[in-house]
Amino acid sequence: METPSRQLAARADVIAQASVEPMYQDPFWEARYGPERARRFGDEDARFHVRYLVQSLDEHRPSVMEGYARWLRTLLVSRGMSTFHLDANFAGLASALEAEGWGPGTEPYEHVRAAREALRYPEGPSRTLQDDAAELSRAATARLALYLTQEDRPRLEEELRLQLSYLADALDADKPELMADHVRWYVGFWPRRGFGLLAFPTVLGMLKAVLGGRHPEARALLATAGVSWEETRS
């Protein structure tokens, strides 16, 4: 009987394509990198995910996927992406594996779970922000409810988790310019998110408010990013 790694290798292209296809429904990728480049690199990354998973299974070491996740996060953050995006890629891979019969409790699925867990920062303000991201997103969305339809609220919560992920990545790297660069680009992209009259600076202001005293480093970094964007407008 073939091992899971050999079975996975035989289905690698199918699983990789299934894992990444939902990503292309997000207009972010086409807007940020261009349609051809976004799909080419997205497809390549998906195949690399599966190759590393095969290696991890061959060696029976989830640490292979854990190390890969941390290394890839550093690379992608430098290219305008966030931990949130990479975790979504791994979530897509987990779903593709489950569709092939490798669900929770199977070795392939659990190795991907280990990779996703490795994306949690070990300590410090960045880890605290990751831990609180869902709660902060809900709080900010509730305060912005006046601008939203009922259907928009879950979308905005997810959007806020994305912004908090960029913030956590910039904090961990100790590179405020990562968040500033992101904000400068994202303010032009924001209308494509389809939140009507809700402006991106308003969203950032509400995030700053809910960060409060529990996240002083994140609050200060977000304020710096906002000032940087304002300076480019003047």
How are the SSEs ordered, and which strands pair?
Layout: H1 4-10, H2 12-20, H3 27-33, H4 35-59, H5 62-77, H6 83-99, H7 107-118, H8 124-143, H9 152-173, H10 176-189, H11 200-211, H12 216-233
Helix pairs in contact: 1-4, 2-4, 2-6, 3-4, 4-5, 4-7, 5-7, 6-7, 8-9, 8-11, 9-10, 9-12, 10-12, 11-12
Provide an overview of this structure:
By secondary structure, the chain is mainly alpha-helical. The chain is built from twelve helices and no strands. Helix 9 runs antiparallel to helix 10 (about 175-190). The model has no long low-confidence stretch (mean pLDDT about 95).
Rg is 19 Å
H/E element sequence: HHHHHHHHHHHH
Helical content stands at over 70%
Outline: globular
Strand content: under 5%
Overall average pLDDT:
94
The number of helical runs is: 12
Task: Give the biggest beta sheet.
Answer: none
Given as residue ranges, the uncertain stretches (5+ residues, pLDDT < 50) are: none
* SSE-based structural type: mainly alpha
- How many beta-strand elements? 0
The end-to-end span amounts to 67 Å
Briefly summarize what is shown.
By secondary structure, this protein is mainly alpha-helical. Helix content is 76%, strand content 0%.
Q: What labels describe this entry?
A:
234 residues; mainly alpha; 12 helices; globular
